[in-house]
Description:
- It is a single chain.
- By secondary structure, this protein is an alpha+beta fold.
- It has a single domain, classed as Beta-lactamase, CATH 3.40.710.10.
- It has nine helices and 13 strands.
- The chain has helices at residues 6-18, 64-76, 96-99, 104-108, 137-150, 154-166, 211-222, 235-242, 317-332; strands at 23-30, 33-41, 56-58, 114-116, 122-124, 172-173, 207-210, 226-227, 230-231, 262-263, 282-285, 291-295, 300-306.
- A hairpin with a 2-residue loop joins strand 8 and strand 9.
Amino acid sequence: MVDTYQKLISYVDDIKERNNSSASSLVIIKDGSIVLEHYSGFHSNSNAIPISEASQFNVASARKSYLGLAIAYALYEGKIKSLDDFALDYFDSFDKELLAGTTLRHLVTHSHGLNERKDGIIFREFAPGEGWAYRGINILMMTELINKLYGKSFPELLEERVFLPLGFKETAWHSRPNEKLVQVIDNPNDIATYKLGSSNDGFDSNLHTSAREFALWGNFHLNNGVVNGKQVVPKEVIQLTTRVQNPTYKDKDLPQNGLFWYVKDKPSLRSEIGERVPKGSYQILGVTGPTLLVIPKYNLVVSKMYNKRYNYGGNNYLHYLREFSNLVADTFKE
């Protein structure tokens, strides 16, 4: 069985070495069953704790997929009326002129055009819906909104409604180190460090999960919220997160997004998903190297992990992401 996936294993391990990551993991779920688990390396470039199924990686921006589910809940339950509501209706402390014309749809699909300088000054890069740019301000805004709407943090909301029913015990926002957490390498010449937050309220990039639970998170979406025959989350909530939600762009090469997930619709040059991956697939990724790819057409989920910041280096990251997803598609093509 492993021979079937050897190209994928070799690719993941090769990237680990080329990018000076000390750790890598690969988990594949096909037709609801885990068909491959591959663990390689160590928790840090300075200690000898080997990577295992219990190792928990910092997933960096991949945490947006978890926030996206909370936003979908708010839409489903009417706490947010529509993605086309103006952001000013929810963020009254913002400069009205700066936020004018910006909708929640823009905020959840990276088409809002806002950016923030190091001194905290918020400015506009482009008109709402007229472009695409990955920035952090919209993540903070939507985190603040969901926490306000529910009177609790979105991690608490997910713990109650998703993680506990699914039996997740290796997915959490950490503020203290422990031996199961994989440290992150910023510079190969420096000792890796824990990436922890000051709290577990969802604002910090301190979400950790195992490669297995990351894959199960994807499988949970693939199955439209059904686990062991039980509808844990309404199907409509899942579908809100994983179907195309962005406005129609004039530039057809811009990425397509659901609620923060990257969605494969029509092939586009700036998509993180390769051109040979079937339409309807979706993916989430983080700067420390995690990638979760879901291909509904093949009833397939692939989770891979690293612990190196800017794992693919500069402008090459699109090439490597697309190359890997194409390799996955080629391996499982029916």
